[in-house]
Amino acid sequence: MSKQILVLPGDGIGPEIMAEAVKVLRLANDKYGLGFELSFDELGGAAYDKYGVPLADETLARARAADAILLGAVGGPKWDAIDPALRPERGLLKIRSQLGLFANLRPAILYPQLADASSLKPEVVAGLDILIVRELTGGIYFGQPRESKVLESGERMAYDTLPYSESEIRRIARVGFDMARVRGKKLCSVDKANVLASSQLWRAVVEEVAKDYPDVELSHMYVDNAAMQLVRAPKQFDVMVTDNMFGDILSDEASMLTGSIGMLPSASLDANNKGMYEPCHGSAPDIAGQGIANPLATILSVSMMLRYSLNQGAAADAIEQAVSKVLDQGLRTGDIHSVGTTKVGTAAMGDAVASALRSL
Ligand code: NAD
Description:
The chain has 360 residues and is an alpha/beta fold. It is 40% helix and 19% strand. The longest helix has 18 residues, at 14-31. The radius of gyration is 20 Å and the shape is globular. It starts with a strand and ends with a helix. The structure holds nicotinamide-adenine-dinucleotide.
């Protein structure tokens, strides 16, 4: 049976960038005879508008049945005032947790052609190639109890809970070590073990897992220091492994080292490497509908999907080469544009990647 890919364009710039990613995916499908079947559904605000919930049961069932899922982005001001339980982001959290997508891989690679687009000096970021492995289905974003209430005094208060079990830490630590093993053999585990009980367990379990990986050099770093080191000397890192919230923040920080969040793909994998692939950025409501969003993060997410979930490394390499070729040609969307390069819109960038892929 042919492999099934479920495409969820989402909200804001989601449908615009997804149109370009699907263009490239369809071309790769034909060119390399991959035989994948694509189907489409909604997630987030678009799902709320269509089904009344941010993730419909039938969509979840289709996601379970698919071999891989490609997502644009969700959220936007249109849904800011609705019941918090029905907000677009809830659909995203639910699909991640329901599918057991506990390992979020976020590469931060600086394309040499974009060294000028980084806000850091070229010598600090040139050659940067970091992989952040973020735990995605546990920690403070899911922990119970969580509550917002009004105290008897009339003062409002709210709290969240940051729980981690040993098995949750162990499985994400293994992903971190496995990734480090096939890269630069260096793993930095990021926590806040000087303050948080959950981080103290995190550090202890990571140390235990390290015994199975004597070939990988393990270090630990407090998250505040890691945030600083990422802008001071980011090339010291190879693979970083961390919890859900710290990973959320550090991976956005790392993304800016590379010039634009519009360049960065991500993968969220389950224990069998089935995955959901999406750009690291959000739905960018400020530029939605203008045809100027950078589709490369989503196109590179297609490449990660082919590599990690669909075993099509050659097609994945070809898409990455096509992106690099287009950057060589000097084509840039507004977020990565600089003097001497040619500014193009979303569709023109997608067309250029497709054309480069066709000619490989
Ligand atoms: P954002 O990532 O959407 O945008 C941050 C900035 O980056 C904006 O100025 C935006 O224009 C720019 N940007 C993002 N992607 C771009 C692209 N491809 N090309 C060019 N510029 C790009 O983050 P935000 O503004 O904090 O959030 C907007 C909405 O997205 C919110 O509703 C938020 O909840 C949601 N969000 C969704 C996801 C997701 O779906 N995984 C992730 C983060 C935020």
